[in-house]
Amino acid sequence: MLYKANSNEYLANGVIISPTNPHPGEAVKICYNGLLPKSGASCIHAHIGFGFEWQNAQDVQMTRTPSGFETTIIANNHDTVCMAFKDSVNNWDNNNGLNYNFNIHQ
Hints:
The longest helix has 4 residues, at 35-38. The protein has one domain: Immunoglobulin-like. It starts with 14 loop residues before the first strand and ends with a strand. The mean pLDDT is 91. The strands form two sheets. Strands 3, 4, 7, 8 and 9 form a five-stranded antiparallel β-sheet that branches. β3 (44-50) and β4 (55-61) form a beta hairpin. The protein has 106 residues and is mostly beta strands. Helix content is 4%, strand content 45%. It has one helix at 35-38; strands at 15-18, 27-32, 44-50, 55-61, 63-65, 68-74, 80-87, 92-93, 100-103.
């Protein structure tokens, strides 16, 4: 069984979303200041998909901010938004293969 989390459970890895309990159609801000920027990456993409089959998967370039990297997506009509992060030389932060999975509340 795959693990779904709320935002606070990934805080130690530098991954948070706002709002922490998004609804379909709602804008979701993703903030990332984890392994890749701490290792010196200057360009980060969020790899985003919906449902545990990663439907509608896409790479979204994140914007560097004083607190790390950020982007905003729209939650779609699935129960989960899944994400991992990669830098410009294809190093990944995928939570040790578990990815970062957040509930979308219907």
